[in-house]
Structure formats: structure tokens, C-alpha cells
Write a structure and sequence with these properties.
Elements lengths: L3 E7 L4 E8 L5 H10 L9 E6 L2 E7 L5 E3 L6 H16 L11 H6 L11
Antiparallel strand pairs: 1-2, 2-3, 3-4, 4-5
Length: 119
Amino acid sequence: MNQTNSFVLPSSSAELDLTIRRATEADAGALRELALLDSRRPLTGPLLVAEVAGRPWAALALDSGEVVADPFRRTADLVELLHERARHLRDGPEAPAPSGPLSRLAGALRPRRHGLSSG
């Protein structure tokens, strides 16, 4: 399943359109370029990608936890979100919520349950 979670992060000068999603075959070239930019080997296995305005800024290998990120952009928070999303995928939607400044954004990465309320 290719689940996409999109939301907007405020920045100092503008808003960023951020998407955290699983990588697909179509991402291979862009992720290879991202790894080269970060002076790292390309990631292997299932990956999560953090895209801003449709361009990958960071990626995380789900099996190893290795990360590549654009060294010319502020990506530390994106990498933290990738790790949090990976934890949700691994531990399930009932995993305890994180604490700290990204807790609200990390909550946005949890899958939503849609259903009828009883009340």
C-alpha cells in the first residue's frame, strides 16, 4: 500500500508542501542523486521519502534506518519525521505518541481511521 500523508509545515518565509510516503521505482533516479549529493551510497530496500514541493529532500531505509538528506537544506526535522513514520509503520497506529516539538506533526503521520461514531 502506498500511503501518502501531506501537510504544510510553516517556515520562516513561506509554507512548505511536505509529503512523507513510500518510495516507488519511479523515485530511483532522484534518490540516487540525493545520495550522491549527501556523499552516501544509495539506500536499498523499502524506503520512505520526505518530499518538499514534489522534490525529495530526505529518505530513510526502513530495514536499516540509514538516511540520506540534502546537505544544502534544513532537513533535521524531516529526518525526525521519517524516523517517526517508520516507527508508526513498524509498531502500528496504537504506538505511544512522541513528546517534544514535533509531536503534533508526527501525529499527522498516523493513519486515520474512518468510520461511524456511536453517539
